[in-house]
Amino acid sequence: MLNSVKALRVSLSTMMRRKVTAEYPKEHLPLQDRFMGFPALTWDEARDEPFCTGCMVCIRYCPTQCMSAQMTDNTKFADGDSHRKKIVETFEINLGRCILCGICVDVCNFDAIEMSFEHERSERLRDANRVDLPTLLDMGKAYQEESGWKQSKPNAPSPKEKEVIAAAKAAEEAPELKPEAHPASGSPDPPEDAPEDAPEGTDADNRAKKEGETP
Ligand code: SF4
Ligand code: SF4
Hints:
The chain is α+β, with helices and mostly antiparallel strands. It has a domain at 24-147: Alpha-Beta Plaits. Helix content is 32%, strand content 13%. The chain has 7 helices and 7 strands. The chain has helices at residues 2-16, 57-61, 75-78, 103-107, 133-147, 159-172, 203-213, and strands spanning 39-41, 43-44, 49-50, 67-73, 86-94, 113-115, 130-131. Strands 4-5-7 form a 3-stranded antiparallel sheet. Strand 2 (43-44) and strand 3 form a beta hairpin. The N and C termini lie far apart (152 Å). The site of one iron/sulfur cluster (SF4) has 14 residues, from helix 4.
């Protein structure tokens, strides 16, 4: 009898306990802010293009050699709309081989790759987890939106923006806006030793003028 009461008490306390597990995949526990899922490529809204230039640094450092990329000339740079001379053309990560180490993120100098919240990519086929550039950019955009991601430093000015900056600077330094230069010194201020009221003519002229005035 005593044992039955004890068992009932244990059952009741277990039933009342707060649930700490979820019935995955029907239920999902909330992800923490610092959760590291698969790497994804970020999108530059200001330039409307990827941050990635295809420089290959992350690819050289990846310990599992699961990444590949190609770069190309950026047509937006030629048009003056972007500061990036080169841009990524193709990018692939085999997420089946990625060990989520985050080294690619650490070595990238362009804010171009982040460890996203994406973590559910189980597939039946060996090569089905190879993801291409559009997929990586979609993952990156979703991550940027969910996390409120911000780039670490502002973009350098594009060629068109540089022209606008140069024109504004030239307008600031325009000669008509500056005071006229003094003929003696070339500076807007008169030279220190210049007489305050200069005589109108030479000494001889002044003497002749005085003599003419005498009756
Ligand atoms: S993600 Fe970064 S390091 Fe990797 S290729 Fe792109 S710009 Fe280079
Ligand atoms: S997280 Fe690590 S293993 Fe995965 S792609 Fe980046 S460097 Fe390679």
